[in-house]
Amino acid sequence: MRIRLSRALPVAAAVLAAVAAVAAVAARPVSAATADVPEPVPHAAPTADHATYIVTVREDSDPAEVAERVGATPLHVYRTVLHGFAARLSPDQVEALRAMPDVETVEEDRGATGF
């Protein structure tokens, strides 16, 4: 069976990026201060001109529920290589997600380059 390199490289790059992101987050210590889960906060709905973000959450958290807490509508929910979601987010939503203890990373989706 032959696999075209042009098809395999983007998939391999995405997997490597996901593994690197998870490894970086796994090294972050969890303190007692981050154990409290904040109440849902109402936010202005993002518009089409807001950037798309990839949000990773702890394994024991439901990505769809985390998105719901900030009023985000996921474009995709990840449950295999990554544990999180992609969504268009307003600046307020990004700030709120970064403050949540069960959110590991909030990164603007810029696509893979350099291959």
Structural description of this entry:
This protein has three helices and four strands; from the N terminus they run αβαββαβ. The model is unreliable at 30-35 (pLDDT under 50). A four-stranded antiparallel β-sheet has the order 2-3-1-4, with helices on both faces. The two termini are 24 Å apart. It is α+β, with helices and mostly antiparallel strands and 115 residues long. The protein is 33% helix and 17% strand. The protein is globular. It has helices at residues 5-26, 63-69, 91-99; strands at residues 52-57, 76-78, 84-88, 103-108. The longest helix is centred in the first third of the chain and has 22 residues, at 5-26.
What order do the SSEs take from the amino end to the carboxyl end, as H and E? HEHEEHE
> What is the first-to-last residue Cα distance?
24 Å
Specify Rg, calculated over alpha carbons.
15 Å
Sheet with most strands: 4 strands, antiparallel
Number of helices: 3
Our estimate of the beta-strand percent is 15-25%
DSSP, total strands: 4
Secondary-structure class:
alpha+beta
Overall mean confidence score, pLDDT: 75
The best one-word shape is: globular
Strand order of the largest sheet: 2-3-1-4
- Uncertain residue segments: 30-35
Tell me the helix content: 25-40%
